[in-house]
Amino acid sequence: MKSSPANRSRDIERQAGYLQPEHCAPPPPRAHSAHDMWFIRDGCGIVCAVITWLLVLYAEFVVVFVMLLPARSLLYSFINGALFNSLAFLALASHLRAMCTDPGAVPKGNATKEFIESLQLKPGQVVYKCPKCCSIKPDRAHHCSVCKRCIKKMDHHCPWVNNCVGENNQKYFVLFTMYIALISLHALLMVAFHFVFCFEEDWAKCSSFSPPATVILLILLCFEALLFLIFTAVMFGTQVHSICNDETGIEQLKKEERRWAKRSKWMNMKVVFGHPFSMSWMSPFATPDHGKANLYQYVV
Ligand SMILES: [Zn+2]
Ligand SMILES: [Zn+2]
């Protein structure tokens, strides 16, 4: 058989008769249900996720206590405070949803003889088996060594959200990058205003902290916001581009051949964010309905 790049990238490729299901342990008695809490126990990922929260809370502290509360205009403080806090709340909610949503894990150990027989393969049909988690891989699924599972439409494993970005949580991940980019931009604008305002006024009236402490806190916030603005804006752009083209990060890296149907860019966005377009696209609390446009098959 001629080996194309797409075939080489697969872990194992056999005809149904050679799958050797006896090497796989039977699946756990209780299947993983969608309502179970999903959380990856990975030390590095947990540390990164906690750092993300601490950085957002630091920004929150500086914005509220160093810049907005001492500001003289109540209206300025109120509008900016409401906007910044709403965006920060949505960013943290998106982070939680991205972290605690099953990204699309394939049931572990389902490569059993009974399951393969139940697929009723025709002669010559091929199924893919993951040798690491003993599951039958649907098309476009990849094994993640951190999650120790095969993930449907896996894009990449992100330690900042301590989870894989895949079919079921990509919306939350995209929202997370978007809201972090927005609060970073907003914080930078407020720091710029604060500096302009405080150079004209007396420093002592401008902040309840001492001038050196104020400057250090603001410069640290500036540095943080600039770094995260660049990082998350690039990530957001890359994600939207790959959603529109319906090609995951892994598929782009491996230059996999397109084996799936081509849809319009707008349709591809709806597959990830839900159908039809509404304000719920922006909400980390609205679970998108992936069902209709996504017909995954076990057999290719
Ligand atoms: Zn696997
Ligand atoms: Zn993963």
Automatic annotation (TrEMBL):
<dbReference type="GO" id="GO:0006612">
    <property type="term" value="P:protein targeting to membrane"/>
</dbReference>
<feature type="transmembrane region" description="Helical">
    <location>
        <begin position="46"/>
        <end position="68"/>
    </location>
</feature>
<dbReference type="Pfam" id="PF01529">
    <property type="entry name" value="DHHC"/>
</dbReference>
<keyword id="KW-0808">Transferase</keyword>
<dbReference type="GO" id="GO:0005783">
    <property type="term" value="C:endoplasmic reticulum"/>
</dbReference>
<dbReference type="InterPro" id="IPR001594">
    <property type="entry name" value="Palmitoyltrfase_DHHC"/>
</dbReference>
<dbReference type="GO" id="GO:0008277">
    <property type="term" value="P:regulation of G protein-coupled receptor signaling pathway"/>
</dbReference>
<feature type="transmembrane region" description="Helical">
    <location>
        <begin position="215"/>
        <end position="236"/>
    </location>
</feature>
<keyword id="KW-1133">Transmembrane helix</keyword>
<feature type="domain" description="Palmitoyltransferase DHHC">
    <location>
        <begin position="129"/>
        <end position="255"/>
    </location>
</feature>
<keyword id="KW-0012">Acyltransferase</keyword>
<comment type="similarity">
    <text>Belongs to the DHHC palmitoyltransferase family.</text>
</comment>
<protein>
    <recommendedName>
        <fullName>Palmitoyltransferase</fullName>
        <ecNumber>2.3.1.225</ecNumber>
    </recommendedName>
</protein>
<dbReference type="GO" id="GO:0016020">
    <property type="term" value="C:membrane"/>
</dbReference>
<dbReference type="GO" id="GO:0072659">
    <property type="term" value="P:protein localization to plasma membrane"/>
</dbReference>
<feature type="transmembrane region" description="Helical">
    <location>
        <begin position="172"/>
        <end position="195"/>
    </location>
</feature>
<dbReference type="InterPro" id="IPR039859">
    <property type="entry name" value="PFA4/ZDH16/20/ERF2-like"/>
</dbReference>
<keyword id="KW-0472">Membrane</keyword>
<dbReference type="GO" id="GO:0005794">
    <property type="term" value="C:Golgi apparatus"/>
</dbReference>
<keyword id="KW-0812">Transmembrane</keyword>
<dbReference type="GO" id="GO:0019706">
    <property type="term" value="F:protein-cysteine S-palmitoyltransferase activity"/>
</dbReference>
<feature type="transmembrane region" description="Helical">
    <location>
        <begin position="74"/>
        <end position="93"/>
    </location>
</feature>
